[in-house]
Amino acid sequence: MEAMDKELEQKAKAAKAVSKRMSYLSTEIKNKALCNIADDLSAKKDDILAANKLDYEAAKNSGMSDAMLDRLLLTSERLQAMAQDVFTVAALPDPVGEVLEMRTLPNGLMIGKKKVPLGVIGAIYESRPNVTIDISSLCLKSGNALILRGGKESIHSNIALARLVQQAITRAGVPDGAVQLIENTDRSLVTQLLKMGDYIDMVVPRGGAGLIRSVRENAVMPVVAGGIGVCHTYIDKSADINKAVAIAYNAKVQRPTVCNALDTLLVHADIAKDYLPKVAGELAKAGVEMHCDKASLSILKGNSKLEPVPATDEDWGKEFLALVIAIKVVSSLDEAIEHVQSYSSGHSEAIVTEDYTAAMRFLNEVDAACVYANASTRFTDGSQFGLGAELGISTQKMHARGPIGLKELTSYKWLIFGSGQVRP
Hints:
- It contains 14 helices and 16 strands.
- The chain is an alpha/beta fold.
């Protein structure tokens, strides 16, 4: 058997040991720790950006894709947004200790549920240093200990951010070991971490399809996975055209390298001739490459400024993570729903329509973590949902779905109050 890495073993044991104390840490201490983190993100901005620059330049020189580089990059504005998210988490109600469903049974027993932390969370992620802060803040507020394992491409950024977190929470009175970062970037440590079921209660992978598949196949503890977003927006025949142009443009262009960006645009045939030239004109201004089916291509090909290209079978169900979009004309709401159900990754899907019945059919029949009527899929985000931040976006159905916030990082235990009852 392969010898356990000493760093991993020591930090896993420390996290497990401190998780018991974390479970009853006061809300006051947790909120003070979070405010310290948010303040330090501003105070130590220069150090963080300098560390991130080392990672970014090395990744760029190695030929990393633009999408991944965008996820790796930290800026003053992004640090400010991260700090604001941490303040938001601090302002949210503490889920730990909330009592649910208390009732009295015929035998006089009072029985109910109380929310408790999960214990130790393992986070395995690629490229995104902001995850270090997002997951740390959520785990702290929900009373969980945390083991972070980022990718080697963001190691300098992650070390700087993790140390910031550790120093900030120690000043607030959080016990040592609550947040751990595995600094060894050897890939074999991931496999070892996934076998540490005695120490880690749940693991969350954040990254590409390969990472998520590997974690699911090798983990001995529960896995909450998602993040692969093949997102559709369907423009119904009753849609307001101006509204539909703005929604599709935002979903595709606002930040194309993320999992909730639009990949496939479906357009009802009755509105296609009016709608497609307008939305395509706006997308073209942003440099979006349009992969069109035969029907949409015939509508757009006469405009030399658009330069649409024929779609291939591989375009349907593809997460582009770039300024590329697939466009298809459909004959009905039924065909739109059928297409979404065939190619969706279960992340975020949208309909644009002024027909209430059509909207409700889409919301009811489309099986995804987040289903929208008349809004951009770019809102699928813990911060945008008022959760402060997110551990990830789950496309599973057990035990969490969609943005994973504080409540999804808790379990519960039964509380039973008696007055001397014995079972007959």
